Amino acid sequence: MKFGFFDDSKKEYVITTPRTPLPWINYLGCNEFFSIISNTCGGYSFYKDAKLLRLTRYRYNDVPGDVNGKYFFIKDGDTVWNPGWQPTKTELDSYECRHGIGYSRFTSSKNDVQAQVLTFVPLGDNCEISSLKLTNNSSSAKTLSLFSYVEWCLWNADDDMKNFQRNLSIGEVEVIGSTIYHKTEYRERRNHYAVYSVNSKIDGFDTSRDDFLGAYRGADAPLAVENGACTGSIASGWSPIAAHQLNLSLQPGETKSFIFVLGYLENLQGEKWESSGIINKRPADEMLAKYQTDEDVEKAFARLNNYWDGLLSKYTVRSSNDKVDRMVNIWNQYQCMVTFNMSRSASYYESGIGRGMGFRDSCQDLLGFVHLIPDRARERIIDIASTQFQDGSAYHQYQPLTKKGNSDIGSGFNDDPLWLIAGTSAYVRETGDVSILTEMVPFDNDASVAAPLMEHLRRSLDYVITHKGPHKLPLIGRADWNDCLNLNCFSEHPGESFQTFGPSEGPVAESVFIAGMFVKYGEEYAQLCELMGMPTEAERARKEAELMNEAIIKDGWDGEWFIRAYDAYSNKIGSKECEEGKIFIEPQGFCSLAGVGVEEGLAKKALDSVKEKLDTEYGVMILQPAYTKYHLELGEVSSYPPGYKENAGIFCHNNPWVSIAETVIGRGDRAFEIYQKTCPAYVEEISEIHRTEPYVYAQMVAGRDAKFHGEAKNSWLTGTAAWTFVNISQYILGLYPTHTGLSINPCVPKNFGDFELTRQFREGNYTIKVQNPDNAEKGIKQIYVDGSPINGCVIPYVKGKTFYDVTVVMG
Ligand code: BGC
Ligand code: IFM
């Protein structure tokens, strides 16, 4: 069952009922100011950091769900309704929500009044614009009142939820004309404030929640709206809000338009600070002056659309499969940009106060967006590397505002260092910018101990080399990619995540997954060394990768598949010898895609085992059989009920690893089958089962053992976005950036047909026609560049050349 449809011509998903199985959200904002908006206008806004600088409040765990947002109430006689249906839930005569690329548009009607709301964050300003148009479609004049409503958050969202003894006394606001200023903490010289303004003269306002909503009422039935009159309240402490009232009359057929702006402001450097607590409104005046007319809004909206059209034209495909085209050209790349901006911080499943930017997460996200915004990828790499410790290990997370490592979580996830090599290699292959490797980067943000980025990468590699266990496989530490595989945690605090090492046995658990990563990224590091004129170091890295390869084949192979790990007692994890958790997906995918056991036929066996043991109609499960009991020696993985999350859920993030591995051994049909199973455009048809947004990936789909097999959770912020884009764009469709040029080597299903790609790679624009006369899954007969045949499948990069006309014949 579907709850809407894709409108590819507009790059929108059109939701046709507000009663989606779960709130279906979108992200507004590209740089520093962001909003989350659901299909019923729920959500909140923040500047840079959803924890530390949050503008509007959100309520988690609330019933009914998704009840705080930026709302417009329309009072038409006794009927009060909202264009997004919530919070009054007045039945609408028509409803439509279009989530587009960086904007959302609502069109609804009730009793012959139509409301159109377009919401977006313009480029270059820290604000959200909502353009609201009301039209009278009846044959008689209408007198209406329009009310806006946002609830301010006391900036630090964590504190806002906990520190009531203080917070209920600090709220301060001011109203000047049609602008409501939220200036809580301004007196503390915090230098920031927020505004909510409308471009018309208002007929009333409220800034105290209690006065606007009324005692013991919620936003579903605000008293002021019911009475048709705001009270003019000025909040002092308690819960400040911003509500405007606009009375209007509309002749038949008439439309009136209003522009609301919610903005974040900082005092300009050197600006006189008015110590009386009256805010310095100049920065706000300047910003608001830019968005006063419909033309202003149209221009800003056009700029935003052009920006996105430019980004999304960097990689395009035209094939006979409209679902692939839709995901590649629009939604998968869009989700990659959102994960770039958010990492794992703020969604409807990540509270915005728990996790900030993940070291491994953001490094992997880079793989999906580096071609879109290479300059910002560069900055991101430096930010991430700056949280690395001198021994090569790293803070697992850092806060986006401060860019400082999070010491509550700390370090000790032994895969983290290698992801820095993955991200940097992707950046250098994409851009050819080797200057990043000589950039001085601090350790732990301490400028007095800085080293070139290349040295950071060396320490990443050496961290793994110097932390190996009894089988010469990498020590896992607190966990590797699988956060829940806590093999060095013993009995003391069962159920806790990220437990510390046990006392006597020592941290000896080993990870075959990290070993696979080492083989792949050891080679990528070696290539960077060669670029830097360090052949001896390249040779050393390759030797180490070879040793690791041998260790995997010797002690990481179980006969039919790769084992997952050795626990702290040197017992195998993910082996046929285990009672439960006999096979895990991660090493099958990662070792095989790294090339381990490909020549020996082990990779093929491992991937066949994946198909036999882990496959379901909704995707490939992370492990089988699910753990039915809690195992102290395994940690959090077995704390989940069977079929959920890391305990035998379909962890979408690692499905592309298996699909990529299938392309490495040339099985296009199977690679595509795996791609298809979790792909939103395909899953749209079963939205009543899948339940999360049908235009983006979710982190997890419940596995076969779960009660609700096929149900997704944790949508949007997942490494799945980057890895599926890498899979489809670089391996299935086959355009892989190398240091010497663009490699073309597709691996497609036999019936995929011919297809065309365009790619912007460095300063070159490539148009690529792929012909597949023999319906081959993989293999290149010949590539022609500007009409001339080339050897092999890498189109050599030519400095300054801007156009490449390429024909590829598979076979
Ligand atoms: C996992 C969760 C786990 C958490 C903390 C996450 O990365 O996906 O399942 O609960 O880490 O251990
Ligand atoms: O690898 C992790 C990631 O860092 C956060 N989400 C879950 C993944 C698997 O545990």
TrEMBL record:
Keywords: Glycosyltransferase, Transferase
GO aspect biological process, one term: carbohydrate metabolic process
Gene Ontology MF annotations: carbohydrate binding; glycosyltransferase activity
Protein name in UniProt: Cellobiose phosphorylase
Domain Glycosyl hydrolase 94 supersandwich: 11-293
Source taxon at top rank: Bacteria
CDD domains: GH94N_CBP_like (cd11754)
A Pfam family the protein falls into: GH94_b-supersand
Every Glycosyl hydrolase 94 catalytic domain range: 307-734
